[in-house]
Amino acid sequence: MNQVNNDNAANSILSNLNIANKNKDEEKTNELGQSAFLELMITQMNNQDPLSPQDNTEFIAQLAQFSSVEGLERLNSSFEDFSGTFQSNQALQASSLVGRQVTVPSETTQLFEGGIISGAVNLESSASDVQLNVYNEAGSLVSKIPLGAQPEGELAFRWDGQNMEVNGELLDWVGSEEPLPAGDYRFEMLANQNGDREQVETALSANVNSVTLGDDGQLTLNLAGIGAVNIGDVKQFN
């Protein structure tokens, strides 16, 4: 009989172990943990000695922690959804730039056949004897454009390989009888400022060939004649 009882007890233990192992394989979530905790607290309250009730402060504190953790997880989930939607919208808007032109800080860019390159420099003070030099892909100076004295501020120009426009006015200067061919060109703006002859940083227009969305969510524009440029470096969408 004892043997039978022992066998039954052993079977019961093995059965409980199987159930326990089975429960381990089940995925546990914070929501289930909170439900189990509430069930445990209610059971304990129902079975406590009414003449000597237990202090429920710790239960309440843990319950508050459960609620805080659950709230933070929901907040994180909502933020991830928002971030994913924002990146998708940003990529969609950036893809609309393909085929259009943007202006970025650069010395080089590409001239398309029949196209126009726009550029700008910022003169920190009035300058004399301002000159724009244009070099072809071989590094040869192909255009030397005198711009004379210029006031402080932005100086905007447009060049089609033959004619030059500065601040909306077409110059009398003509580089050659025929427009220069399509290709990559380097621009060098020189100016006399504060007694020194110095090169001024240029920003040039370029065609957007494609857009790349990085693993970190950063958008990169692949520009003709310039290469990859972070979208945050764009000075102007033309």
Summarize the structure.
The chain has 238 residues and is an alpha+beta fold. 34% of the residues lie in helices and 38% in strands.
Key terms for this structure?
five-stranded antiparallel beta sheet, Basal-body rod modification protein FlgD, nine-stranded antiparallel beta sheet, Immunoglobulin-like, alpha+beta, 238 residues, FlgD, cilium, elongated, FlgD/Vpr_Ig-like
List the helices and strands and how they pair.
Layout: H1 2-25, H2 30-46, H3 57-95, E1 101-105, E2 108-111, E3 117-123, E4 127-135, E5 141-150, E6 153-159, E7 163-166, E8 169-174, E9 183-193, E10 196-200, E11 202-213, E12 219-223, E13 227-230, E14 236-237
Helix pairs in contact: 2-3
User: Mean pLDDT score, rounded?
Assistant: 82
Q: Characterize the main sheet.
A: 9 strands, antiparallel
Q: Judging by the overall fold, what is the CATH architecture of the domain at 105-205? A: Sandwich
Helix content: 25-40%
- pLDDT below 50 for ≥5 consecutive residues: which ranges? 1-10
How do the SSEs run, as a string of H and E? HHHEEEEEEEEEEEEEE
Number of strands: 14
Domain FlgD Tudor-like: 89-235
Family: Belongs to the FlgD family.
Keywords: Bacterial flagellum biogenesis, Cell projection, Cilium, Flagellum
Domain FlgD/Vpr Ig-like: 109-193
